[in-house]
Amino acid sequence: MRLRTNLVYLVVGTIVPLVGLASVLGWLLVNRENDAFRQGAINRNRAFMTAVDAALRGHISTLQALASASSLESDDFQVFRNDAVRALNAQSDWQNIILAKPDGTQLVNAVRQGGEAMTATSDVKSFRKVVDEKTPGIGDISFREYSGKYGIAVRVPAMQHGKLAFVLTAVIDPEQFARLIRDQHLPNGWVSGLVDASGHYIARIPWRSNADMASANYLEAVSQSREGWYRGVTVEGLRTFTAHKTSDFTNWSVGVGIPEEEVNSGAVRAGRVMAAGTLVTLALALGFAYWMGRRISIPIAELADAARALGNNPRTVIPGERSIKEVRELNQALIEASEAIREREILSEREQQALKAADRAKDEFLAMLGHELRNPLAAITTSSEVLRLASSDQSITNQAHEVIERQTKQMTRLVEDLLDISRFTRGSVTLKKAPFDLGRLAGGVVDTWERSGRVQYGRISFNSDQVWVDADRGRVEQVLANLLDNAVKFSEGDQPVNVRVKRD
Question: Nearest to residue 263, comparing CAs of 325, 189, 323?
Fold first, then answer.
């Protein structure tokens, strides 16, 4: 797998958890915004329902004051009607005031003139509740035939001597509650409605007839809880989030519907911003990964090519300095490897040259050895022939013996030199070290040469200090003999040879 691919995986693996975290945070923020909508709508409903209940309690208080009129104590219904008409004129939201017996028979109707026939009591359910419980009651919205309008019956019991004598009713115009809704100044597109216990609209924005029922979604939500928040569809087909609240006093409910797109606008905006941010971030990250991958992989590829080339050409030029530390280190390592290879190449060349020189020296030595061996062999052969021809002449015989002895020693020395060279080559030379005076040893070598006749007396000039060394005496003596032999051999004529031993 290529380095750039790994970098892409690294970037994606880093961004995906961040995107997931951002998504969770965005979801939490959207939920918080939705909760703000929900709580705001619920608080609005609570305040509205409190105002509705307060208005109805005000109507009840006014009716109770009217029910305690003295004209009812004396059953003077004409006087009471006059009181009712004055009260009706004082209450702009009242449509009518009706006084009825507990059996439903109307005795007074403030909007009907004397002599007109009384209509039957409408909204029998709320009327019977007041009769049975002898407590104020509030009915649902219903159509009033005498006025041709919808109204709401607010009823109170009129007690005499501890018994229910009459039921006093004020018919309230639902427009009062429509004004309460309008006073909230709801944003455009929002829906709000006051619904009675039977599910009919009392007041609504946008307007709906009082004969219309609330939506099925709303009625189901209200039946399941006294207060809540749900997602549904209005009677117009508008998808909304709706908060609802049911009054414990009247069993009426109020709902505020907020368009779904408005509630979800925060989520949509957040989603779009997050998607755009994710795409931009991912694009930038992938671009950066591609750029960084090239920035890393190109010098590495160049170094790899250079490393492969080192095997064939140790003088390969390594690419220049790079800005990445690891690449610089790899670059430096290859440079050092290249230099090491070059040094080994130079060393190998020197070793080859040394081997060739050693081979030449060996050939020269063998040639010299052959020459050196031929000389004593020739002398020995000649001396042997002299012994054979002049066996009676003692002086000649002695001289021939001396030559043979001397040349034999020479050959022995040459053979020992060969053996020493072989031992040095195999690394099997054993040195027997011991302290001795180097000057005295050198003097002995010179004296032996002079006594053996290998050099004339007086030709060697010897001068020595006392120099003690710790070495192999025999090997050092052999070295001194070889040095003296070379000095004598390569000196012209009777040129004197100077031997000096002194402390450095």
Answer: 189
- Tell me the pairing of strands 497-501 and 460-464: parallel
Question: What is the Cα–Cα distance from 1 to 360, expressed in whole angstroms?
Answer: 57
Q: Residue 254: beta bridge partners?
A: 194, 245
Looking at the domain that runs over 430-504, which CATH code has it been given? 3.30.565.10
10-residue mean pLDDT profile of the chain (504 residues): values are: 68 72 63 82 95 97 94 90 94 94 92 60 86 95 85 95 94 96 93 96 94 94 96 93 96 95 75 73 75 71 68 58 66 73 82 80 66 61 69 69 68 67 64 88 84 75 89 84 83 83 86
- The answer to whether 468 touches 438, Cβ cutoff 8 Å, is yes
How far is residue 223's CA from residue 157's CA, in Å, rounded to a whole number?
Answer: 30
Strand-pairing partners, residue 167, are 100, 157
The CA–CA distances, whole Å, from 427 to 286, 419, 423, 470, 482 equal 67, 12, 6, 21, 21
Contact 449, 484 (CB under 8 A): yes
Pick the CATH number of 93-173 from 3.30.450.20, 3.30.420.240, 3.40.228.10, 3.40.50.300: 3.30.450.20
| CB contact set of 236 (below 8 Å; sequence gap of 6+) | 206
Q: Which helix (H) or strand (E) holds 256?
A: strand 253-259
Name beta bridge partners: 257: 191, 242
- Name residue 356's amino acid: K
- What number of residues does the chain have? 504
Token pair for residue 120?
């039957």
248-272 burial code (b ≥16 CB/10 A, e <16): eebebbbbbbbbeeebbebbeebee
CA 97, CA 158: separation in Å to the nearest integer?
A: 14
